[in-house]
């Protein structure tokens, strides 16, 4: 692993590069797209384990923090989800530059899956997107965030110990996985667990043949909630195997 900062001055993003152990898989690369900051804390270990595993499969991987989240530049109160796709684009360019890959796959957890789809819609160098436990409906998710609020101050809500600006909540309400999926032309794979509350809605869309994507049900649920014990919950091994299979079966 190689931790480093990249991006424009004043907007430096913190990233961790997992170089491919050996040349292979046609120079394949993966950029990880995180969910909202309070859920990213609970899921970052899954990304780390997956990044290490994929690098042993000869795939270059880059994990990173959006601006104003984690160790990247900016105060957490300045976080704006409208800027996250731009940061993903910067991460794609960086991975291509340091690894030599020509195109990438994006892996997004929760809201990160919708950010990934938005980027894939705008770029031609995204070969595919893997949506892991994606948010299905922005309004429903926004209401969940409001219910989980433990304090408010100056236009921000405290959710899971981290601020979420009201501006972000307004934008989240407009998001829809179905709309985001239908807007992209690249291959999309969805991984979901029946133990998650949104699985019913996702299954309904699939039954109605409204989602154009690859889909796999796994039994191990990703511990994305803010109160999840990081590093204590079982490793989502089945989901990890699915992701590795999808990426390495591409030839």
Q: Which percent band covers the strand fraction? A: 15-25%
Could you give the distance between the termini?
A: 25 Å
CATH architecture: 3-Layer(aba) Sandwich
User: What's the arrangement of strands in the largest beta sheet?
Assistant: 1-2-4-3-5-6-10-11
Question: What is the subunit organization of this protein?
Answer: single chain
CATH homologous superfamily identity: Alpha/Beta hydrolase fold, catalytic domain
Write the element-wise H/E pattern from the N-terminal end onward.
EEEHEHEHEHEEEHHEHEH
- Biggest sheet features: 8 strands, mixed
Number of self-contained structural domains:
1
Structure annotation, total helices? 8
Helix content: 25-40%
Uncertain segments: none
Anisotropy-based shape: globular
The average pLDDT score comes to: 88
CATH class label: Alpha Beta
Structural class: alpha/beta
What is the fold-level CATH name, i.e. the topology? Rossmann fold
* DSSP strand count: 11
From the alpha carbons, calculate the radius of gyration and give it in angstroms.
Answer: 17 Å
